[in-house]
């Protein structure tokens, strides 16, 4: 498991390959305020003469949602010296000793500042094979997030938890059939992550880690099970388990506040912002999942338990079945 210096917060020189990309992603949740979100900004300098790709969403306990999943040409305002921008600079993730997340959109404004609990770490070093075709260079961290949000005229003060990642290199999007990624934190005493990865070559890999009081620990094995909705892509809940040296296990029940659909290059994934509890302590996780058996040949038209429409929407009331 490698750690990364401050210099890796700045954009990296691109490879000439058409699918070279650099991306930053942040998932966050304030459980007390009942609001969370996800943002991923990708820069693809060799795709269509230079493109940004944005996946952005906000979810609330009250049912108000906001989603923006778009691409566009890279402009000068998107090319930040210490981060990545999209939408002519209206969306950004940057770093100056803290992580700054900003968004300016119709009926939605966000400004957050986040601080890591532990060093930027490449946990994908635990894995081999197909995952390196999607994230050849990579790091993650968890921490605290604070700031303000205005959504549909409703202001929120944010004091919560977050997880972030940063990746750069050639990204072979068509190598994935399905995956599960569970990352999050309960505070500086416990952060966590796991991934299962099902590749087009038929391989299925699992790996995970814990960060306990700043100490990194690799899991011997991991497991994650989702309660899927009838649409075959969104889910009602999830259970994540880490199996550690000596047989110790840690299991988290992940209950989504809500979720957002994200799409790029024929791959569709769901990011659920979830509340978790462990030994009486409350935290959060992002439960990301994809199910892509048709290889992106048919777009997603129905999402029971995640925001699919662009802009501001409201979550439909749960069905009788999903309430139980």
Question: Could you explain how this protein is built, in words?
Answer:
- The protein has 324 residues and is mostly beta strands.
- The longest helix has 4 residues, at 320-323.
- The strands form 3 sheets. An 11-stranded antiparallel beta sheet has the order 6-7-8-9-11-12-2-3-4-5-22, with no helix packed on it. Strands 16-15-14-13-21-20-19-18-17 form a 9-stranded antiparallel beta sheet, with no helix packed on it.
- It has a single domain (11-312), classed as AttH-like domain (AttH-like fold, Beta Barrel), CATH 2.40.370.
- A hairpin with a 6-residue loop joins β17 (221-228) and β18 (235-243).
- The termini are far apart.
- The protein contains 1 helix and 22 strands.
- It is globular, with a radius of gyration of 18 Å.
Biggest sheet record: 11 strands, antiparallel
Please tally the helical runs, counting DSSP H or I stretches of 4 or more residues.
1
Query: How far apart, in Å, are the first and last alpha carbons?
Result: 41 Å
Q: Unreliable runs, pLDDT <50, ≥5 residues?
A: 320-324
| Rg for CA atoms | 18 Å
Mean pLDDT: 92
What is the number of domains? Answer: 1
Topology of helices and strands:
Elements: E1 2-3, E2 20-30, E3 35-44, E4 51-60, E5 64-73, E6 83-86, E7 91-95, E8 99-105, E9 108-116, E10 121-122, E11 137-151, E12 154-170, E13 176-187, E14 190-199, E15 204-212, E16 215-218, E17 221-228, E18 235-243, E19 249-264, E20 267-278, E21 281-291, E22 311-314, H1 320-323
Antiparallel strand pairs: 1-10, 2-3, 2-12, 3-4, 4-5, 5-22, 6-7, 7-8, 8-9, 9-11, 11-12, 13-14, 13-21, 14-15, 15-16, 17-18, 18-19, 19-20, 20-21
